[in-house]
């Protein structure tokens, strides 16, 4: 079950259908929402966020405020993970409370709630399916045997997949592309037939940015322009870019999982195809345990505050090793899926000549 860069070079095996069902069943007790915990998480985070903004207002317009950007980015990431949980309707026991609070938090993050939730649900239902590549570009690797057929695309991938580029791509995707319908892949031609909430998504896209800008205007009027310009904007960009890197390493690592439709099982996408990024206490808090992505993908109805308990209790999840430094490096070098060995590989001389 251990997935590390030291795993022997052999054809890997995965959970079969019966084993997958058993693991999914074992996850169900951890989906129980604890409303008081969720309310405390969100409420205390917003209070601390406002205290940081109040401190920035008291400091006045000084370039030293840029030093708050990493903390502001952490707050934005934590609030976005809450929005993400609310989109799964996992944080609270009431679907309506999840939806209303998720919509309100989207005004802070600037990421429209309904379209994000729609495409994210699709991601959960199809991640790891080789037949669904090309829709979710963040998680759509080429295979080794496709390199000779599309060498230019392979070279472009090798050239562009770098941590800084993924950071910039994440910031651009979340803060610019998500202002328009085409920034969400449910509005693209290959996906549109599966969409049943198109009008709700369009409404969310139309009013989320104006509402977010109205919050900035309120900050300027009450706390000072410098709080918006020197704290909120840099924090949002830094948080979005860092989030892009986190998205990348959640599924793009050497011992990930892809399969043809007839062999695909959702539990394998979690246990093998989603990473375990072990973070220290402060980073765990700011990311609300999203580093336990293998647990989240097993059952997205598990709220963030139950992820660690589920990881410890379910043997298949407890056996997954966290990504090592070498694993993280290979996330940006092993970019092609080897169908035979069932792992990601570098180009391996396929582009020679």
SSE topology sketch:
Elements: H1 17-27, H2 35-59, H3 69-87, H4 95-109, H5 113-126, E1 142-143, H6 151-160, H7 163-175, H8 198-223, H9 225-251, H10 266-271, H11 281-287, H12 293-298, H13 307-313, H14 315-318, H15 325-330, E2 336-338, E3 343-345
Parallel strand pairs: 1-2
Antiparallel strand pairs: 2-3
Helix pairs in contact: 2-3, 3-4, 3-9, 3-11, 4-8, 5-8, 7-9, 8-9
Word description of this protein:
With 353 residues, the chain is mainly α. The protein has one domain. Helices cover 56% and strands 2% of the residues. The protein has helices at residues 17-27, 35-59, 69-87, 95-109, 113-126, 151-160, 163-175, 198-223, 225-251, 266-271, 281-287, 293-298, 307-313, 315-318, 325-330, and strands at 142-143, 336-338, 343-345. The protein has a three-stranded mixed sheet with strand order 1-2-3, with no helix packed on it. Helix 3 (69-87) packs across helix 9. The model has no long low-confidence stretch (mean pLDDT 91).
Strand order, biggest sheet?
1-2-3
Summing up helix and strand content along with how strands pair, one would put the structural category as: mainly alpha
Spans where pLDDT lies below 50 across 5 or more residues: none
- For the termini, the CA-CA separation is 38 Å
Number of strands: 3
- Largest sheet features: 3 strands, mixed
H-E order: HHHHHEHHHHHHHHHHEE
Which whole number gives the mean pLDDT? 91
Rounded to an integer, what's the Rg over CA atoms? Answer: 21 Å
How much of the sequence lies in strands comes to: under 5%
Helix content: 55-70%
Looking at the structure, what is the overall shape? globular
Count of DSSP-assigned helices: 15
- How many structural domains can be distinguished in the coordinates? 1
Organism: Lujinxingia vulgaris
GO biological process, one term: lipid metabolic process
InterPro entries: FA_desaturase_dom (IPR005804), Fatty_acid_desaturase (IPR012171)
Pfam family, one: FA_desaturase
């Amino acid at each position: 079950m251990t997935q590390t860069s030291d795993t022997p070079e052999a054809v890997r095996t995965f959970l079969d259908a019966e084993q997958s069902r058993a693991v999914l069943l074992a996850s169900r007790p951890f989906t129980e929402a604890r409303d008081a915990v969720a309310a405390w998480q969100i409420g205390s985070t917003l209070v601390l966020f406002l205290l940081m903004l109040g401190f920035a207002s008291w400091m006045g317009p000084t370039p030293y405020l840029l030093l708050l950007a990493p903390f502001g980015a952490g707050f934005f990431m934590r609030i976005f993970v809450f929005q993400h949980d609310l989109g799964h309707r996992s944080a609270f026991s009431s679907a309506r409370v999840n939806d209303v609070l998720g919509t309100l938090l989207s005004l802070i993050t600037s990421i429209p709630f309904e379209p994000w939730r729609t495409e994210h649900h699709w991601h959960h239902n199809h991640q790891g399916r080789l037949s669904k590549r090309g829709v979710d570009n963040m998680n759509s690797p080429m295979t080794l045997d496709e390199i000779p057929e599309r060498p230019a695309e392979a070279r472009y991938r090798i050239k562009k997949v770098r941590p800084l580029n993924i950071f910039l791509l994440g910031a651009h995707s979340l803060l610019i592309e998500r202002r328009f319908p085409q920034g969400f892949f449910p509005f693209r031609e290959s996906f549109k037939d599966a969409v049943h909430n198109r009008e709700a998504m369009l409404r969310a896209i139309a009013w989320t940015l104006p509402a977010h800008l109205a919050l900035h205007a309120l900050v300027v009027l009450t706390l000072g322009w410098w709080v918006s310009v020197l704290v909120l904007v840099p924090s949002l960009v830094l948080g979005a870019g860092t989030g892009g890197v986190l998205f990348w390493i959640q599924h793009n690592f050497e011992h990930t999982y892809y399969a043809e439709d007839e062999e695909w099982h959702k539990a394998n996408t979690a246990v093998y195809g989603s990473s375990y990024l072990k973070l220290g206490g402060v980073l765990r808090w700011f990311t609300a345990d999203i580093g336990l992505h293998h647990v989240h993908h097993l059952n997205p109805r598990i709220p963030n505050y139950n992820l660690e308990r589920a990881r410890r209790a379910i043997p298949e999840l407890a056996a997954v090793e966290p990504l090592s430094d070498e694993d993280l490096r290979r996330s940006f070098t092993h970019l092609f899926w080897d169908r035979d060995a069932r792992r990601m590989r570098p180009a391996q001389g396929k582009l020679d000549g």
